[in-house]
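Input/output pair, single chain:
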Amino acid sequence: MRIVSDYGLVRVVSLGDPFRNASDIRVETLDRATGTWTLYSGFNSLSDDYAYTNAREAAGRAVRDLAAVIAHEISHTEPV
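Output:
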């Protein structure tokens, strides 16, 4: 596995072999509660000429989605 791009809580990784992995280019998000990376979206570079471009766009959507979740969590916390 090779990390192509790292955006903190979101990353794009390449699993390397499009013949063995249906989604060899993956966008993953970090689950802050468990510390594990989970699949957000996947692409196959063999059948998708724009797999890396599509993965970068999906990573942007993942960052926006996570930012919205975190903002919602912050807005609903009680002040100390």
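Strands lie at 2-6, 10-14, 25-30, 37-43. The chain is about 30% helix and 30% strand.
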